[in-house]
Automatic annotation (TrEMBL):
Lineage, broadest ranks: Eukaryota, Viridiplantae, Streptophyta, Embryophyta, Tracheophyta
Signal peptide (UniProt feature, chain positions): 1-44
PANTHER family named in the record: S-ADENOSYL-L-METHIONINE-DEPENDENT METHYLTRANSFERASES SUPERFAMILY PROTEIN
Native source organism of the sequence: Setaria viridis (Green bristlegrass)
Domain of life: Eukaryota
Protein name: Methyltransferase type 12 domain-containing protein
Chain ranges passing through the membrane: none
Keyword list, A-Z: Signal
Amino acid sequence: MALPSSASAARLRLLTVPALLLLLSSAALLVFLVLPSLSPSSSATSGHLCACSPPSTHTTTTVTTTTTTASPAPVTTSPADVAWLKAQLESNSLLAGGAAASHDAWHRLRKGINPRTREQQLFDINRHHGISHYPDEEASNHTALPCPGELLVEEHHSNYGEPWAGGRDVFEFLANASALTPTDQVLEIGCGTLRVGLHFIRYLDAARFHCLERDELSLMAALRYELPAQGLLYKRPMIVRGEDMDFSKFGDTVMYDLIYASAVFLHIPDKLVWTGLERLAGKLRPQRGRIFVSHNIKFCSRLGGDECTRQLAKLGLEYVGKHTHDSLLFNHYEIWFEFRRPKV
């Protein structure tokens, strides 16, 4: 057999090198594809061979979750809460005596704060409308619920004889004394600007708070400022303007677990109070339901003890007892009188 010439050998080398590279690449690819099938899969440990079906393009992950129910917020400030706050005040050296020595001393504490009275705030709002505002008329601006300046500076917080914070005291007492739950139905006679009602609305489920109020300014403050400002519009309380103890707008079938009048019956003629009790007695849940009246019950005591008892029994009510409740923040206590509807 004749040997190839040098030119033929060169051509052979040129052809052999690419072929060799191609051969090596094919071998490497074959090893890459074959080795995974030869190695044990995770399913082999459980006695099953790996599936030969094409892999899915989607991955499904199963996550196990544990559902926990949050405990409801406590109604009453506990002794541990009070002790904690006192410790915070002490550690920050804040007003050890509870108040500054004088009115001037109080304002000196404000240092970099720009102190303005409500009257000054109202003047600035009416004149300047704030730092940045739309120059258009109220009807065409971007404010969803334009509010009167008097309400924005919270003038209505000074419309009552006690500090606004006293509303929390009333709520705490009534909620505990009536063993209130969020699903209960509550009626306040004379809720005013919601100094007390806000706490009930926040605690109760939606649409569980009813109120009858006669004062227009108080209703404006409650509906146009307090509910939107407190983020409680979603609770949908039913607040009705009315007087003469007319509860017809609340419906004929509603049953109340708690009815209360905070310093309201003092300003209503005795005859009208009895009219209201007569209309509400059948709407109070038997046994569990409670009516609470604050300050005094002269509408009852003026009749004399025996006669009052007879009048209450005629309405299907009975007097339970008298309570006092201390304020958390100021030197004051509230007197409450409790009534109920015996089992029918």
